[in-house]
Amino acid sequence: MAEAVRVKLRRLPHGEGLALPAYATDGAAGMDVLSAEDVELAPGARAAVATGLALAIPSGYEIQVRPRSGLALKHAITVPNTPGTIDSDYRGELKIILINHGHESFAIARGDRIAQLVLAPVVQAAWDEVEELDETVRGAGGFGSTGGHAKLA
Ligand SMILES: O=c1ccn([C@H]2C[C@H](O)[C@@H](COP(=O)(O)OP(=O)(O)OP(=O)(O)O)O2)c(=O)[nH]1
Ligand SMILES: [Mg+2]
Question: Which CATH number fits domain 8-121: 2.70.40.10, 2.60.34.10, 2.60.40.10, 2.130.10.10?
Fold first, then answer.
């Protein structure tokens, strides 16, 4: 595995005493991030849940906020903006947006692992505006133009 990229992190007052986001296993892609507050999510409700953390991600990287599959499968709790984008120049509190798609209220307790953070490299694009684009076999076909979900023969 490549060497870890160092990311500066600051605990906010309400994040004191909480474990830092961490990889649950050696090969984990995402670090589980903890809630810094108790939140009750009614069916259909969403909330920006505090983590008590502020970050300075190195330039050239982002952090993606992804749902945890266990919460999604067992409780229908997910991240509506997945993957959430944490920009390298953001210095505010990292918040995890959660939505309850289930039929029952869901209680999040301070210290619960609510989502996972994936560090990813970012390449910025620059536009080259042109009059014509090159032709391809696909052309303007999309949205199922190659045969939908049926098996390839
Ligand atoms: O799940 C998320 C998504 C975003 N953010 C923070 C970090 C991110 O850098 C900033 C802006 O996010 P985004 O660009 O997704 O939101 P926007 O609606 O475009 O807001 P803005 O105009 O501030 O960019 O908000 C979070 O804390 N959690
Ligand atoms: Mg934005």
Answer: 2.70.40.10
> What residues does each domain of the chain span?
8-121
Annotated binding-site positions for substrate: 68-70, 81, 85-87
Which residues have any ligand 1 atom within 6 Å of their CB?
65, 81, 84-87, 90, 94-95, 97
Cβ atoms of residues 81 and 97 within 8 Å: yes
For residue 49, which ligand has an atom nearest its CA? 1
| Mutate which of 46, 51, 85, 88 for ligand 1 pocket (most atoms within 8 A of beta carbon) | 85
Counted residue by residue, the chain has a size of: 153
Q: Give tens-digit pLDDT for 39-86.
A: 999 999 999 999 999 999 999 999 999 999 999 999 999 999 999 999
Q: What's the whole-model pTM score?
A: 0.95
* 87 CA: nearest ligand 1 atom: 9
Pair 83, 18: CB distance under 8 Å? no
Interface ipTM above 0.85: yes
Q: Which residue has the tokens 């474990």?
A: 19
